[in-house]
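RECORD TYPE: inverse folding
INPUT: structure tokens
STRUCTURE:
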């Protein structure tokens, strides 16, 4: 029983102590809050008591209260902020007033000098550009806009080759005991031409004199006999071409040419044998000429050329004979009917006597 009473007393004491501690803490907190918050009566109403006077009659300076210190500090801060704002506002105006006249005075002479230089230079540049544009326009547009007629003489040099002549003269059905070589010839070319041209398209016709020529050499080692067959035909060479001008001066053409041989049986034959076999050689020549004849040949033609402004023209032409040029007649001398063709490459130089006409 005593123990229970002692325990209850201790609990009461502890409860009293805790209650006292709580009261003390609450009072301290209230005191701090009252001290930190200003009294509205004292902050708004002025102090009614006059300032005390010292013995000499002058007022004694009193220490400001915390509220008056806070208000004085806030007032000084506001005054300082207004002064800073005025200085910031005034600085741009003073800079623009002082600096802009200097910039204008410096820039004006520079702009005037540049403007004078540009005005002096621009007319000359514009004139030169206008002249260049007009010149190129005349060069490019004039030949392609207007129709033109070209006419004049031309000459040149060419190379011709008649194919498979050895097969006509000799049969290769048995093993040959001879060597056969063929080669072409360099021939002249001379004629006239005429072309009507509109813009980039031209139609050209021409007629030339030339020759188709080839040589066949037969060598027999057993008898040491060398035989030479020379084929040479005078040709009236006519052509009709269509030209396309890639530029005002450069053109490419394609068409057809027709070769008309007008000298028949123009075949020469000779050997390295002595005069004792001269009659035999003449008889062989007669057999060849009577057994072989020439034919009209159709030849597709390609050409590329360049025309100078002074009327001179340079061209490179190639023609290929698609039909037989030499026909083998019926004979008893062992000459064969073989399909043969002709190659004709020529370099021509022409001159337009109507170069100033458009």
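DESIGNED SEQUENCE:
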């Amino acid at each position: 029983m005593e123990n229970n009473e002692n325990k209850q007393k201790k609990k009461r004491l502890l409860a009293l102590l805790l209650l006292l501690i709580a009261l003390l803490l609450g009072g301290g907190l209230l005191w701090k809050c009252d001290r930190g918050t200003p009294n509205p009566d004292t902050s708004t109403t002025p102090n009614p008591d006059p300032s005390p006077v010292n013995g000499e009659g002058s007022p004694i300076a009193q220490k400001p209260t915390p509220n008056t210190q806070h208000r004085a500090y806030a007032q000084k801060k506001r005054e300082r902020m207004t002064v800073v704002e005025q200085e910031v506002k005034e600085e741009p105006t003073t800079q623009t007033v002082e600096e802009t006249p200097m910039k204008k005075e410096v820039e004006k002479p520079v702009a005037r000098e540049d403007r004078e230089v540009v005005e002096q230079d621009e007319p000359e540049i514009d004139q030169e550009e206008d002249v260049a544009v007009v010149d190129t326009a005349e060069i490019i547009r004039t030949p392609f806009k207007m129709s033109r007629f070209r006419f004049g003489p031309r000459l040149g040099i060419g190379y011709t080759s008649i194919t498979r002549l050895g097969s006509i003269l000799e049969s290769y059905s048995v093993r040959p005991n001879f060597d056969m070589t063929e080669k072409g010839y360099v021939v002249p070319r001379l004629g006239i031409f005429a072309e009507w041209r509109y813009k980039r398209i031209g139609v050209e016709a021409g007629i030339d004199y030339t020759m188709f020529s080839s040589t066949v050499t037969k060598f027999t080692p057993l008898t040491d006999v060398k035989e030479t067959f020379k084929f040479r035909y005078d040709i009236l060479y006519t052509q009709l071409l269509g030209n396309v001008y890639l530029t005002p001066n450069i053109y490419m053409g394609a068409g057809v040419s027709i070769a008309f041989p007008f000298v028949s049986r123009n075949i020469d034959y000779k050997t390295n044998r002595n005069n004792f076999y001269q009659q035999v050689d003449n008889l062989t020549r007669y057999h060849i000429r009577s057994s072989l004849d020439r034919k009209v040949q159709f030849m597709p033609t390609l050409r590329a050329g360049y025309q100078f402004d002074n009327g001179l023209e340079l061209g490179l032409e190639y023609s290929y004979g698609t039909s037989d040029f030499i026909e083998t007649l019926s004979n008893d001398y062992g000459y064969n009917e073989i399909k043969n063709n002709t190659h004709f490459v020529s370099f021509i130089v022409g001159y337009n006597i109507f170069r100033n006409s458009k």
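NOTES: The chain has a mean pLDDT of 78.
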